[in-house]
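ok new one. same drill as before - structure tokens go in, u give me an amino acid for every spot. 146 of them this time. try not to just spam alanines like last time pls lmao
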């Protein structure tokens, strides 16, 4: 949705008090629209901020014209300061990723029995059909009319 536009597109990434907010301006109207807002993001200190315009197999030209980085001063309680120092890996509280549903419940005894029963019936049916086809093939291969 940001390709081949006649105006610049802008992106704001804000991380304040364990809340990550991303807003975009792709319409050229200088009005920010919410993109994502994730509470409970815990990022460790001492990492670097980097950007890339790698697009994989696409042959588009993406130019990052400028970056403006600000360090916000936010009042924190001593408890918040202690919790922020203890973060070693990036973590998001209560995040449900796509494809990470709850584990499936184990099958009941009846369902397991039916699956095994019908599997065995199908195997027996395939063996019977195979024997019939093999016998027909042997009969036809024995008959030679010279």
């Amino acid at each position: 949705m940001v390709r081949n536009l006649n105006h610049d597109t802008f992106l704001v990434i804000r991380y304040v008090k364990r809340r990550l907010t991303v807003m975009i301006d792709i319409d050229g109207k200088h009005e920010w629209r919410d993109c994502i807002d994730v509470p409970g993001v815990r990022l460790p200190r001492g990492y670097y901020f980097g950007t890339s315009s790698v697009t994989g197999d696409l042959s588009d030209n993406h130019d990052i014209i400028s970056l403006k980085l600000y360090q916000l001063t936010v009042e924190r309680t001593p408890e918040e300061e202690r919790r922020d120092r203890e973060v070693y890996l990036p973590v998001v509280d209560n995040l449900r990723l796509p494809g990470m549903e709850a584990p499936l419940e184990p099958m009941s005894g009846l369902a397991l029995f039916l699956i095994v029963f019908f599997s065995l019936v199908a195997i027996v049916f395939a063996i019977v059909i195979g024997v019939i086809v093999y016998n027909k093939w042997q009969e036809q291969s024995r008959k030679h009319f010279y």
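DSSP finds two helices and five strands in the chain. and btw Residues 71 and 108 are 56 Å apart (CA to CA).
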